[in-house]
């Protein structure tokens, strides 16, 4: 899987673009390819992991997963556990 950052994402339209870490190409990102529970959206600057698929209109990012969601959950859980230990 590749990594990159969300360039922008329009919730109303359900799509945006990702800038891959290994290239200058903008990759199309559609909400239907975001792998998460609940409301599928991305935020500008958010680090993501994804696969790519070529199309006649350019390269599409697929199987998109936000990288900071799990990290933030673990940090929040650690902070709660540390405060409970005091």
TrEMBL record:
Which Gene Ontology cellular-component terms appear in the entry?
Answer: cytosol
* Residue intervals of the CSD domain: 1-66
Q: Which domain of life is it from?
A: Bacteria
Q: Does the keyword Cytoplasm apply?
A: yes
| GO biological processes | regulation of DNA-templated transcription
- Database matches in InterPro entries: Cold_shock_CspA, CSD, CSD_CS, CSP_DNA-bd, CspD, NA-bd_OB-fold
This protein's UniProt keywords: Activator, Cytoplasm, DNA-binding, Transcription, Transcription regulation
Q: Which GO terms describe its molecular function?
A: DNA binding
Locations listed in the record: Cytoplasm
Protein name per its UniProtKB record: Cold shock-like protein CspD
Q: Which gene encodes it?
A: cspD
